[in-house]
Amino acid sequence: MLFNINIMSNLPIITLSKTFHRKENQILIGFKHDWTLINVVKHIPNAKWSATLKSWYVKNNPENLGLIYSVFQGRAYVNNSKLFNKQILCKSTFPNKQKRNLTKENRDLLNSFYKYLLGKRYSKSTVNTYSFFIADFIEFHNNKVLNSLTIKNVNEFIETIFIRRNYSISTQRQFISAVKQFIVFYPDTEISNLALTRPKKSRILPTVLSQEEMIAIIQRTKNLKHRAILALIYSAGLRIGELLSLKLEDLQIQRKQILIKRAKGRKDRYVTLADSFMPLLHNYLMTYEPKIYFVEGREGKAYSASSVRKFLLRSCKAAKINRNVTPHTLRHSYATHLLENGVGLRYIQELLGHSKPETTMIYTHVARKDLIDIKSPLDYAVEQLIKNNKEDNKFLLSGK
Question: Which of 59, 141, 264, 301 is the catalytic position?
Answer without folding.
Answer: 264
